[in-house]
Amino acid sequence: MADETPTTPSPTPGSAPAANPPAEAADDFVVRRHTSPTGLAYTTTTGRLVLRREETADGKADGFHPKAEIFLVAYTADGPTPEAAAPDAAPDAAPADASPAEPPREARQGPPGANRRPVVFAFNGGPGSASVWLHMGLLGPRLVDSGDVGAMTPAPYGLLDNPESILEHADLVMIDPVNTGFSRVVHGGKSDEFHAFVEDRDLVAEVIRLWVTRNHRWLSPKFLVGESYGTLRAVAVARRLYEAYGLAVNGLGLISTVLNLSTLDFQPGNDTPYALHLPTYAAIAHYHGRHGDRSLDDVLREAEEYAAGDYVLALHRGSRLPRNTHDAVVRRLAELTTLPEAFIRRTNLRWEYMEFATELLRDEGRMVGRIDGRFSGQPPRLQESHTWDDPSLRAIAGPYSAAINHYVRAELGYESDLPYEVLTGRVHPWSYRTFEGAPVDVSKDLERLLVDLPELRVHVDYGYHDGATPHAAAEYVWAHLDLPPGASGRFTHHFHEAGHMMYLNPRCRADQLRELAAFVGAPG
């Protein structure tokens, strides 16, 4: 924030003293230099970036006025500037009559001085989530020591080095949308102005455009990595960047994907989510020992086949389904999910995820998590049939909150008395007015991007035990994309025996980082 306090005029005799107007918002970045365990020297730039809007008054330009302060942490590798990296000797001159040859690809990487190191922009979802999960759980050079299901690290927790960080392969910018992390609207701004699909999309796109411009990175390969609602945001932001600014991204990293919210929305008349959740129910039941010694692959294969066949047909037939067929469907669903037949009949073959979560282990007095179905815990009430209490989120919230609050202050040098909003409800209600009367769906944006950017690539991570964004729901969206010829070959799909934040599992995290390194390092 600005250091100087504006001068206040003396009050008129007999009047109340005038209050000091607040100082205008200003960037408050703190710069630190570090070295990774692998010897990589890098710089962190931590703080709040002030975004401004160009305004008019009475038809006249009224300047640029602050609208929001966005907290970000940028990691950039140190090293000689491109201008300083000169060859040892000039190449021999070509004969005067030589024909100009097509330069090799490495000779066509841009003008002198261009920084060609890839840069990754990352954020989580919610809406209402800060980027702490991807930041401290997967991508950054320091990790939370949280442990994993069955072996959680006790308080006060700790931090670990991440020698496989994406920073070893690309620069990294972690972004917290408004009212998450330390991001806020400016003094006098409407607190809920950016709690909406379009406003959030445009704001995140503006953060990226401004960072790219100020850091002279227009000629760097650029990637967006999002998780959960952040995948929907990533696709929308990528299209906004290209259409509004001509800024093309090279790749989208989609972790625990949802691009069409109707695939998750258990609303009357929408049978699609019930079938798309079935493989996840079967996988979670398998994890908790309800399928005996059968392999997860076998259980998933049967559940996926049934979900895409007889189950979806039964749902679509509704009350026209013959009684004997209905009974057969109940028995088969009970076999796949291990839920009681009485529960399946009572729900008329249709139940929401949290009903499954409270029912699966009811005989043990436990419920399973939504973010990660491998976790279990005692529900608020043993007779609970539907709750948004999530034992998996309760298990990991403490370690991640402790890690980010310590890390930004003790290691990155940024101080603030604001609470770091890890996962907040203050962004709700979230507005989707752009989609009024239609599903919240950005799959058409992705189709357009794949046409406009013929070298755009898409990396997708799925967790088999993810009850928030089931893998079958994302696969359903891919199957319904209208893609140009060959575009499906630009997708890579990676499945993990873990939940929504599959990187809680150290083996899955290592696999993810290896694949992401290849993704950002591969030629376009």
What does this structure look like?
The protein is α/β, with parallel strands linked by helices and 524 residues long. The chain contains 13 helices and 16 strands. The chain has helices at residues 132-139, 197-214, 229-245, 272-287, 296-308, 310-317, 323-337, 341-346, 353-359, 391-411, 443-452, 471-479, 506-521, and strands spanning 30-35, 41-57, 60-77, 119-123, 142-144, 147-148, 151-152, 159-161, 171-175, 184-185, 222-228, 251-257, 367-368, 376-377, 457-463, 491-496. Strand 15, helix 12 (471-479) and strand 16 form a beta-alpha-beta unit. Helix 4 (272-287) packs antiparallel against helix 5, helix 4 runs antiparallel to helix 12 (471-479) and helix 5 packs parallel to helix 6 (310-317). The radius of gyration is 26 Å and the shape is globular. 43% of the residues are buried. Mean pLDDT is 90; it is low at 1-18 and 81-110.
